[in-house]
Sequence to fold (784 residues):
Amino acid sequence: MPLARFAFACLAMALSAAAAASSDPLVLTHDGLHIAVDRATGRWTARWPSGAEVSQASFGAEIDGKGWVMTTPQLQEKRTFSESLGAGEELRHVWRQGAVRIEREIRLYAGGGRMTVSGRVVNEGAIPVRVGTVHLVQAEQWRIGSTERAPAALSGSNLSQTAVLPAAPGAVSPGIEQAYSGSGVISFFNRDPDAALTLGYVRADGASPDLAARYITGRGGVELRATSRYLDRELPAGATLELNRLSLDGAGTAFVQLESLGDALALAAPRPARTGPIALWCSWYAHRLEVSEDKVLANAAVAARHFGPLGFSVMQVDHGWQRRDITGDWTANERFPHGLKWLANQLRERHGLKLGLWISPTDVASTSELYARHPEWMLKGEDGKAKVNWRWYWKPNPDCYQLDVSQPAAYEHVASMFRSLVAEDVSYFKIDFISGQAKEIFFPADPTVTRGWGEFRRAMEAVRAGAGDAWVRYCQGPPLLSVGLADGAYGGDDTADAGQPGMFRVLKDNARILATSFWLNQRAYQREVCDMSMRMQASVEEARVRGAIMALAGASISWSDELTYLPASRIRMMQQCLPAGAPAMRPVDLFERVVPSLWHLKPTTAVEQWDVVGVFNFDEQPAVRSVRFDRLGLDLQAEYAVFEFWQEKYLGTVRGGLDLELPPESSRILSIRRITGRPQLIGTDMHVFQGYHELKAMQWDESTLRLSGRYERMPGLSQRAYFLIPTGYSPKFEFPLSPGSARLTHVQGNLWMQEVDFVNRAVSWALPFEKAPPAPVKKEPNAP
Fold:
């Protein structure tokens, strides 16, 4: 060792020993967040001004099968940092176990209430070592708010889903234990008083991001764990393993913390996040395995005519286009005799649309040519033999394996396959059955790739390497792996054929996932839902729910029906959900119901700002839903005009809030606009957001008493807008009627309707008004 480096090492060890001997903790503090680390044990405690607290948190790791709880660090230092999430101060601790150096970093960010815990494992020896479970956080105590009842929690589950555990209603006896577990995130919420604590991984490249906690009423949190399972992954000599990074945030509301976590996922990702919805058609519920190029083109003609001018862009051919209807051999079958490039060209030239494909790139049928040529590319079991993943659901039901993309040749095969499909002008991919990669029963050929999680990430990287800038949507894509690699991803079951008896439950479950993952959408990636059938077998209420959960969640709009047979009423309902794209949604009752039922959006345009609330009843019985204006951030003393979209019904001028009685399995969509005291638009039948997409300009001229504006919509549509004309004003009609008259139809009371025929895309309008004389005072008989 050079003399200068030796002297520096000796000085560092001396400073470390002196620090350990000191009884004063190492401290980081900013904006009220206080972090103190015990010099002797390395344990830390964090306290937020909200009262949230995590206490006595240790750090540990398993190396070569032996677990270590890190105690006295050999090196402790405080320094500044700057990275993608921001800048601030960090505490760095170093431990050594033989030839392995283990580091932990605790970072406190300037602004907000976030801290992160991460680190790395460095093999400084001459032989490989195996890394098992790393315990980023093992806390003995935690708390938020009162300890009388266990807090409600939102958590990640099943790789790609999210769920809420509501707080127990009513009084709870002391000593009741509540266990929590999650993948990627757990957000705790206590209403007594309002306080929240959110733990979420912002990076998890190499191992599963597991979280768990226990809480005992009357005592508080008694355990909090953040672990990453590397499953004895090999770390070669001289190599460094960057550990997962965990964020802890106890500042602000749970909504703010979760949305901040979604932003952090995008900022911390190694690739830029890909966001933005699209609108498409999927062949699955329309044709299943009978899909053909003729049927695709027939549906494309309908889609282009009715949806094209509303932002619709992709015809996605689902399972059934590939050879022998199995996985592994991804070339077009006999139902597509002209090939994919020809079909893409026909879609573009005839209808201005793009071609998309369903594909299962890592699933390989035992009867496929790929398996016959390269059985060695399959993932293996512990015995070293290719291991069957599942049996293909569709005839001829072959056994199916998963490709081992830790092998360079198999990785290149996946990337090359996508490059070939892109060369055939495929611009959208729906990725299915790739989640088999996540199974930890499979052993990659490369021992430096973590079983399950690491193999899954490797497969997604291969897809993106080949797909380039094509739009990639994952079925069951984990958020932490999807950010930067996926354009869109969804969790949950297929939404099933509309009107299928007993299957409304799948809509309810998908609504739960969409509502509880609101914080990911248009931040980490585009949060999606499975393709939606709207066919005639569904009741009007079911069809409304299908359209509402997709549009209000801000998901891509994906229809899946035989469009040539749909009646005009269903086509119209589908048009009312287009274009795709929405302002951010928050489920107001997030921690109160397993399936949140009040979805709040605040559309803001250059024209105006208003509120939209999707009100749902996912149950089999009628239900009352209460919409309280203070929970929407509205002025409790002000009056608001409330208009319901589906029924085109004015619910009146409301102060404070309102109760709605909903039929079973139904939805209502409210537009809530503050009363201005002059003629104003309060709703439309054009789009479920009632102005966000279609209202491009609107202004009131007090000097002429004229309200004017401009709508933009698809040519050929006949639509309606609704106006509230307060007492003291009336529409101005010239007699005989002339173009200068108000083109309004009286509905009832102060409600008037404007009928708009879109001959062209844009329609400009002007409505003249006049001051109405006050209503005469009715005198009592014999009054003077």
In short: The two ends are 114 Å apart (CA to CA). Residues 3-21 form the longest helix (19 residues).
